[in-house]
């Protein structure tokens, strides 16, 4: 197990899985973003985010997936990152009052998706695809939406109060512009990527919103930050786990 430690608040010993889950515990219905970035702000290396990760990032990535009700991603992320079927620790989930598998939700206006990709063919729980009206046919449940608020409303209606979004950057930017982002979990990797990799959020102009740092964790030279809306901290005192 990679030795992730807490730097802020209350620096301490390496965190076991239970303590690490407590660091990322949901406090209310939440749309949470999870991203990785190089130290100089690149969202990808060689066109993919995977090379920026590491053992600690993978451990947190898996725990965040295991604790969510729904995983929301854009179609380009599904294609680029070669998404597999979603199976995050079903035994732990059912033991903790969750469905065995989270709901997989994909946003795609054009339905430019491969129906033979394992995310569809090997899925233990059928994914849903949010798309524009008249986009066509696809061998998965299609839900027509007009904006991102309708996406989150529909997921909430289906019982998904805790939504984890893994991007990509265009979807993140749109969610910021729509003021739907409650949290950002950000891994900063000790790499200088240079070149022209984009930011973790791109899209339409948006009002700048100040967030509050909930914690800072570390695994060697890699940092893990959790930011939340400031009003969440005002509404409820912070649990320093």
| Shape assignment | globular
Count of helical segments? 8
Distance between the termini: 19 Å
Counting DSSP E segments of at least 2 residues, the number of strands comes to 10
Query: How much strand content do the residues show?
Result: 15-25%
State the share of residues found in helices, binned by percent: 25-40%
Structural class: alpha/beta
Give the strand order of the largest sheet, numbering strands 1, 2, ... along the chain: 1-9-10-8-2-7-3-4-5-6
**SSE pattern:** EHEHEHHEHEEHEHEEEH
CATH domain class name: Alpha Beta
Low-confidence stretches: 232-241
Largest sheet features: 10 strands, mixed
Describe the structure.
With 241 residues, this protein is an alpha/beta fold. It has a single domain (27-210), classed as Dihydrofolate Reductase, subunit A (3-Layer(aba) Sandwich). The chain contains 8 helices and 10 strands. The chain has helices at residues 17-23, 55-67, 75-80, 90-95, 118-121, 148-157, 169-177, 230-235; strands spanning 5-8, 30-38, 70-74, 103-107, 128-131, 141-144, 162-165, 183-189, 211-219, 222-229. A 10-stranded mixed sheet has the order 1-9-10-8-2-7-3-4-5-6, with helices on both faces. The longest helix is centred in the N-terminal third of the chain and has 13 residues, at 55-67. The two termini are 19 Å apart.
Task: Give a brief outline of the structure.
The chain has 241 residues and is α/β, with parallel strands linked by helices. The chain has one domain (27-210): Dihydrofolate Reductase, subunit A, CATH 3.40.430.10.
